[in-house]
Structure formats: C-alpha cells, structure tokens
Specification:
By secondary structure, this protein is an alpha+beta fold. The chain is built from 12 helices and 15 strands.
Amino acid sequence: MAIAQEPLSSSPTGDKAEALGFDPAIHRKLVAGIESGLLRDLHVVLTARSEEVFLQHYAEGNDEEWGRQIGRVAFDAGTLHDLRSVTKSIVGLLYGIALDKGLVPPPDAPLFAQFPEYPDLASDAARSKITIGNALTMTLGMEWDENRPYSDPENSEIAMENAPDRYRFILERPIVAEPGTGWMYSGGSVALVGAVIERGSGKSLPDFARDALFAPLGIDRFHWSAGRDGVASAASGLRLTAPDLLKIGMLLLRRGSWNGRRIVSEGWIEDSFTAATSTPDGLGYGRLWFIGDAPAPAFATLKPWHAGFGNGGQRLWLMPEADIAAVIYAGKYNAWDAWVTPTRVWREIILANFRGT
C-alpha cells in the first residue's frame, strides 16, 4: 500500500479520528489531561493510523539541544527536536539498510575484527566472543554505567565523549558477563554500531543516513550533534521534526517499503522487533528497539508494541497490529519519572480510545 502524500501536519478532526477507529473526543481528552496536570512537559504529540494523522498537539516549553539549554520554544511541524536515545533505534535501522547493501558484516560477525587498530584488545579470548549482534542488542557483557546523571563525568556515555579515543574507551571496558547473557544499557554499544556503518559505507553516519534513509523518505532537514572529536553521536545526537520521525515509524509499519521502493528488508525489521533479551523492568529488547504489550478496547487480548525511548520523554511508539504510529516529544530531561507522561499518552489517551474499525 502506498504511503499517503498529504502533509503530515494537516489538522486532524474528530470525524477523522472516528473514521480511523478512535473516540472522536480523543483530542479533547488529551488537552484535558494536559490542563489537569496529569500530562506534564509535553512538547509534541503526533499520531497516525493507516498513514492518516488523527491526533496532533504542538505546545510551547523549555528545551535543550544535546544537553545545552536553548530556552523556550514554540513547537510546530517544522521544529527540530532532540530524539536523544530514539537515535539508537534509528541507528539500528541504518545498520539493516547497510547490511542489505552489503556494506557491513552480518550480526554474527566478531565485533573486535571490525576494529583492527586495537590488536591488544582483539587478542583477548573473552573479547573475541563478542559479536556485532551483541552490540545491536546491548548484550556485550562489558562494564557500562549510564545510571549516573548525565551531568556526572563518571557516567559512561559522558566519559566516552570526553575520552581521547572513544572506541578504545568502549572496547577496553572490563568483561563482567558472558556476551549475550544479559542486557546492559549502553550508548557505547551503539557508538560501535555507528562506527561499523561508517567504515563499511565510507561515509559519516549523518551522510549515510541522509542518502540511505532520509532522502528516500523526503526528509531534507535534520541535525546530528557530534562530540569534540567530530564524531556524530550514534547514541543520542539526532534531531528531527515530529512529522519526519513519524514517517520513519510508518516506514516500519509498512515493513520497510515507501511508495513502492524497498528501503530496508522485511527480515531486518522482523528481527529488530523480536526480543533477543529482556531489560530489568521486564520489557523485551530486540536490535535497538524496546518491545512490550498493552491493552486497547478494540482487542480482546494484549497486543505487542515496539518503541524507541529517549531521555526526557522522547518516544516513537508502534503497534503493528493496529497500524498505529505515535511520536511524543517532551522536555523532562534527566528526570527519573520522565517515562510517566509519554506512557500515559500512549496507553491512556491513544490506545484506550482505540475502538477499531
């Protein structure tokens, strides 16, 4: 089925929501949640079913760009916004595109073989077991600590950014578990995935993303923040407008095709959305995508969802069986409860008002 060409920022109505299987009062319920204080710090909510936007809300609020305060912003369909760690999920998609093109090794290839400049590390028998797939599923078995605040220089992602050699910093972390046996959240693992893409494609990560993913989707504006060494942050640096992130979500719901053109293989999406491990809070984790399930009045049973999660409340939620994609941008950076508002919007506004057709 071809992707609709109408602007994603077109104003949805209650009639459109109802025609797509939702309570026609869904937008009023979203606004009531915001006005009541139950839904805090929202910047954008943009949701589509079957390629048709039925719910959108643009607000005003204080924002950051990769940790730098940029003041109060009035958000609209053209405003670039930090994805933070939703960037990781996009990098996972980019790896699949590079693999389809024969530019990178398969996930079962040894990881350290991709970094021959560190022979002292590659010769370690324990490290020789680590694969690219372990990086894609955050099961490297190597020490990494992002539980500290991102203002703390001991936070592993910040320490990586401050290191004279980011890749050596990651690759020489102590082995603390057998590779593949346990999930440990790691921006370093995604930095390695980004490096393999760059080495295989001969392009910087932003240039490869522009040519292989963004341009085919008609995405012509983005920004990718880089560290002091000039390396784009594969872990958290991408900025996109909400309509453009929604396009990526719809590409995934269409199993990797856009207007009849194959962008990424169905097999890569299926494998990315299949749990390879589980997180400490009980979610599944595929190839840089979180996996869970949730109820909706339209269904008799829980239905699976897939999502990219980012610091501050950034989300790309997908429920393939309902053909729903939702983008949520928020400004609660570095807060322990930043997950609350986007989860409420997803479960209590979007899914709770889905009746089906």
